[in-house]
Design a protein that fits this description.
binds zinc ion
Length: 57
């Protein structure tokens, strides 16, 4: 567990979340993952069923 309290600058996640890390901008790894998936498969495409590569974590 990290011993320095930090909260993500974008979402409500903080250092109480297991496995969380923060980048230089103070954003958590979950936000980074969201961005990565959103680039790979934007929600609009997913909703319309055109994205076949997206898988839930
Ligand atoms: Zn976050």
């Amino acid at each position: 567990m990290p011993n320095i309290y930090q909260q993500c600058s974008r979402c409500i996640m903080d250092t109480t979340v297991p496995g969380i890390t923060f980048d230089a901008q103070g954003e958590c790894n979950f936000c980074a993952l969201h961005d990565k998936m959103d680039r790979a498969c934007p929600l609009g495409k997913l909703a319309s069923g055109t994205c076949r590569t997206w898988r839930p974590i």
